[in-house]
Design a protein that fits this description.
Blueprint lengths: L9 H5 L4 E7 L4 E5 L6 E4 L2 H14 L16 H5 L21 E2 L2 H15 L3 H10 L17 E3 L1 H12 L6 H8 L8 E3 L3 E3 L28 E5 L3 E6 L4 E7 L5 H17 L3
Parallel strand pairs: 4-6
Antiparallel strand pairs: 1-2, 1-10, 3-5, 6-7, 8-9, 9-10
Helix pairs in contact: 2-5
Pfam families: Beta-lactamase (PF00144)
Organism: Kineosporia babensis
InterPro entries: Beta-lactam-related, Beta-lactam/transpept-like, Diverse_Enzym_Activities
Length: 276
């Protein structure tokens, strides 16, 4: 039985109309899949992973640098990617803290960053994302019709290609990715929307690094070295380097109490099936 078989009961148990999920191994192959792999879903904040990867390409191309001033006074590209620039959560929000002082998860910070990149390159960010990430990976059914923080759309098949890239990077140097998934500005407390306050709230450059904490949405078997993101629209993607696995899950029911029960159980089943 597939380690993803549990999602077959989600509609009855949790009222989730549609779900598509996949498990990706280190060789880039999909070892298990459930649901329509070509159905498009809104990604919500999983969009941030695609956006981050485009920024990593830009860093390697030297279109910008981590230390470049960007956003509010005293903030840099690194602050914006690591949610420490001081902006509030919502789009259009004003700074509420000095850069580097607090971990404030912020859509606004990501949007300001992509505006900065567009100005630096002279290329609209959606076009840059397509040229730098989507087209090279063959993600033909992924688009950015909305915010680069939360407005992407994709399929499980396309995100499986992206997850394979995260397991074995080709578009950026492995060291670039390893630097991005390290914790930046360690020790900062913060609030993760929908889940509560963590002290510290660990984050890399665009990648959540808060895994293996009690009550985490990715369950109890995942390693502390894992990285990824979840979206309030009912989506997640995690990569666990220790088990050399990635898992993509897209649904069309918003994150809530059901996710806090269903997602950890699903992730634990995936990792247990692969000996974790």
């Amino acid at each position: 039985m597939s380690e993803l078989a549990g999602i077959d009961d989600w509609e009855q148990l949790w009222g989730v109309p549609n779900t598509a999920a996949a498990v990706i191994t280190a060789d880039g192959n999909v070892s298990a899949a459930r649901g329509d792999q070509n159905r498009e879903f809104g990604l919500a904040s999983v969009t941030k992973l695609l956006t981050t990867y485009a920024v990593l390409v830009a860093l390697e191309e030297e279109a910008l640098g981590l230390g470049d001033p960007a956003g509010p006074e005293g903030a840099t590209v690194e602050h914006l990617l690591a949610h420490t620039a001081g902006y509030g959560f919502d789009s259009g929000s004003a700074p509420v803290a000095r850069p580097g002082a607090r971990r404030i998860y912020s859509n606004q910070g990501i949007e300001v960053l992509t505006q900065h990149l567009a100005q630096a390159t002279g290329i609209d960010f959606a076009d840059y994302l397509a040229e730098a990430v989507l087209t090279p990976l063959g993600m033909k059914h992924t688009s950015l019709p909305g915010s680069p923080a939360a407005g992407g759309r994709s399929t499980a098949a396309d995100l499986s290609r992206f997850a394979a890239e995260l397991l074995s990077p080709r578009l950026v140097d492995r060291q670039t990715l390893e630097t991005a998934v390290q914790v930046h500005y360690p020790g900062l407390a913060g609030i993760l929307p929908g889940l509560g306050r963590y002290n510290p709230l660990d984050w890399g450059l665009g990648f959540e690094r808060n895994f293996a904490r009690p009550g985490h949405w990715a369950g109890r078997r995942i390693s502390a070295g894992a990285f990824g993101h979840f979206g309030a629209g009912g989506t997640f993607l995690w990569v666990d380097p220790e088990s050399a696995l990635a898992c993509v899950c897209l649904s069309d029911r918003e994150f809530g109490d059901w996710s806090k029960q269903a997602w950890p159980a699903l992730s634990d089943e995936v990792l247990a099936a692969h000996g974790r």
